[in-house]
């Protein structure tokens, strides 16, 4: 039987047009929110500054220009008041932009922070889609990770966002795996060391080595020293597309592969295989692409486009990660997902071993 023709799309309604104009098609509101977050307008209002004139004085901005920004923020329901002697104040929605709110939206939107600053590269999305190449370095002159390594303030803002809930970001993944048979963890691209620290605290017998660029490597050293773990956890600076500095019985890739293209990711995995001791394992902690509809799917596609635009990476499905690992000579041994362990959200842990000799893809010799 021939497939049935696709159904004709429904004629858009006025409500659809309203959604397109207000929520999907304008760049004004997203940038207005980012400016409000960067200027900490909600924090100033909560501290008692109730007028545009007062806000302008507190933020060092042009009073008339700020007034026009505030008008739009009231129109979209972030602020209210400001007319007929009513004090200006945040709405319930606007309170999400308070610096102390647990959702940390002000920090995510702050244009001085790593992520919101990187989001400005989306003005080059057309070229990204045409070429498949990321836009970040074209805007800022350096690759995303090089930029963070060179700028401590950017790196600190990024680390703060990534670790805003350490129970979910580090402790939950550390709790989801049995470390009792592990002697040495090689954490490849482990950032400022939050996950390796959590592992070491749960498994006092484990030694660890973290490989990172200079900026996060320095932060990891300080973190391990502060936690009293410097005798067990060491840090090595380097590019993990190059040969890794030590071997280990467990090589960890935590939220690393999604940052890299299909060309670079197998190189990293091959380096991990080269660093495995006999019988060792490669552990891949990552986010999985989410099928279907709803909020999970929205955030999965949002992250995927950020990876593409920032650094040329991608959010992969479980099967795509398994295939990528197979191309580097790894076979899947076990897996844990958010539905079967303590893992939050769409996190997954895939455990790989080296393919039997003769089955593995040819690997370059250790240099």
UniProtKB/TrEMBL annotation:
<dbReference type="InterPro" id="IPR036390">
    <property type="entry name" value="WH_DNA-bd_sf"/>
</dbReference>
<dbReference type="InterPro" id="IPR012967">
    <property type="entry name" value="COMT_dimerisation"/>
</dbReference>
<keyword id="KW-0045">Antibiotic biosynthesis</keyword>
<keyword id="KW-0489">Methyltransferase</keyword>
<feature type="domain" description="O-methyltransferase dimerisation">
    <location>
        <begin position="25"/>
        <end position="82"/>
    </location>
</feature>
<dbReference type="InterPro" id="IPR016461">
    <property type="entry name" value="COMT-like"/>
</dbReference>
<dbReference type="GO" id="GO:0046983">
    <property type="term" value="F:protein dimerization activity"/>
</dbReference>
<dbReference type="Pfam" id="PF00891">
    <property type="entry name" value="Methyltransf_2"/>
</dbReference>
<dbReference type="GO" id="GO:0032259">
    <property type="term" value="P:methylation"/>
</dbReference>
<dbReference type="InterPro" id="IPR029063">
    <property type="entry name" value="SAM-dependent_MTases_sf"/>
</dbReference>
<keyword id="KW-0949">S-adenosyl-L-methionine</keyword>
<comment type="similarity">
    <text>Belongs to the class I-like SAM-binding methyltransferase superfamily. Cation-independent O-methyltransferase family.</text>
</comment>
<comment type="pathway">
    <text>Antibiotic biosynthesis.</text>
</comment>
<feature type="domain" description="O-methyltransferase C-terminal">
    <location>
        <begin position="123"/>
        <end position="329"/>
    </location>
</feature>
<dbReference type="Pfam" id="PF08100">
    <property type="entry name" value="Dimerisation"/>
</dbReference>
<protein>
    <submittedName>
        <fullName>Methyltransferase</fullName>
    </submittedName>
</protein>
<dbReference type="InterPro" id="IPR001077">
    <property type="entry name" value="COMT_C"/>
</dbReference>
<dbReference type="GO" id="GO:0017000">
    <property type="term" value="P:antibiotic biosynthetic process"/>
</dbReference>
<keyword id="KW-0808">Transferase</keyword>
<dbReference type="InterPro" id="IPR036388">
    <property type="entry name" value="WH-like_DNA-bd_sf"/>
</dbReference>
<dbReference type="GO" id="GO:0008171">
    <property type="term" value="F:O-methyltransferase activity"/>
</dbReference>
